[in-house]
Amino acid sequence: MATEAKKAWKSHLILIPFSLLMIYPVIWWIGASFKSTSELSLPTIWPKQWMWENYTEGWTFSSQYTFTTFFANTLMMEFWNVLGGVLTAALVGYGFARLNFKFRNFWFAVLMMTLMLPAQVTVVPQYILYNKLGFVDSYIPLILPHFFGGGAFFIFLVIQFIRGIPRELDEAAQIDGASVYGIFFRITMPLIKPALYTVAIFTFLWSWDDFFSQLLYLSSVEKFTVGLGLRMFIDQFEVQWGQLLAMSLLSVLPSAIIFFLAQKHFVEGIATTGIKG
Amino acid sequence: MFAKQSRIKHQHNIAGYVFISPWLIGFLLLTLWPILQSLYLSFTQYSLLDSPTWIGSQNYENIFQKDRLFVKSLAVTFTFVLFAVPIKLFFSLMVAMLLNRDIKGMSFYRTLIYFPSLIGGSIAVAALWRNMFGLDGYINHVLGWFGIEGIGWISNPNTALGTLVLLSAWQFGSTMVIFLAGLKQIPKDLYESASVDGAGVLRKFWNITLPMLSPVMFFNLVLGIINAFQMFTSAFVITAGGPANATYMYVLFLYEKAFKQFQMGYASALAWILLLIIAVFTIINFVVSKYWVHYESEGRG
Questions:
Q1: Which of A43, A117, A125, A131 could disulfide-pair with B37, CB 3.0 to 4.6 Å?
Q2: Predicted structure pTM score
Q3: Could you state, in order of their start, the residue ranges of all structural domains in chain A?
Q4: How far is B92 from chain A (nearest CA, A)?
């Protein structure tokens, strides 16, 4: 017992300084977002003079559009992305995990290969395609892929999850005369909710950070996402660092809130897919 | 009874394709067709305005024989992969082992340590990094306490790439969580019987942890390399490829060719070269894995 307690102390002794080291830049960031330019480079954490204006002035830095527009745009896009991602992952995941159809193994192998495919190979022709259809400078190129299985990773996650559910439930329902569609909606869907939460969370986080596509497809300021708004901020002639850090901090706030609310799904989600890959 | 039994095993050809149709349509239209088209485009000259003109292997010849930026960006990217991937793997394994203990407050530590990875890929952190590593930035002031005179880490060609490697190491979270899940699957009795045999910490790590963890290590290595080759946002925002092209990553080069200079054919050729490089690395990984990845044939499935 004594050695156990001693071991625990040793762990704390390493873990406390290490986690502080990891989180330190974030804490510094919070403090710096309230600092004036002259104080910014000082290694102190909290400012002598609190600059709340960093937030109010940063929010409205561009005379035409404020961050209200950028946040509203991003949240609107996220709503569709999450909806599409969850629906597709559930449907396709069920198809692969439970139904026996011709060439299933072939298509599954293809799905796994797309997991490793670098996005750059498809980006040029995709851009040309969307350009021809007149969809450039709209949210369609950003949203559409989520409805068409764009997240192969998420499909894989749901497949793995369904494989862990006993088949007996399906079979019992089948004997009672339920069709595969009935089984999917009434039995599988409720059971895979935890996996779908994970899909929703990661779809949200990853599309929030998917700067490359946003940069590519959105060009008019009124349609900008938060990421593009920040980029515009950085490209200004003279960057107001305090304001920029304040706005940057706000831009990661939605992800942070989701992370703290849904920590359990996080670790489980990564573990389910990661470990069995 | 028999009729119903056979219905259970029945093939669901139509239903199967109905369920996978969203992905299948997406795959055919948004992945397969673009891949084939980009292969075709890589043999053409195309600026979006006119229709593509077939120029044979001219793009590839120019890339390999004349384009200095290609060589430079490839060298930068290889350097980045060479450092970022092993550092991240090593770091995440160490942290995972540190966190694989049953002590009070562990979930609190895990949250603190994971948090930077959550936000690490965003443009916001790129802005933070640019500020912290600037000439008059936070890092130099801390170094000042120790009497070390700092430099402009991001504006110096010798250190700029290093700051990006460091940023990528700071975002080790998901790799670490996968290691952690793998560690938790190793049966505890293996360690106990090794202790009985008098094995020390290092021998246990070498003879039990590493072999048992090798499938997870393999997974992380394959995906880590693939992701590192595609690094874009931080190079674009923090350094914009500079100074003196010291951080001119391959994907940044591709992006500028395609969407700044609108040389779609040339960019497609670059994309195919990247695809082949990644494919070669992945195949090598799979071949070499036979010699070091141990899959358990018995027990836990």
A1: A125
A2: 0.84
A3: 2-58, 64-276
A4: 13
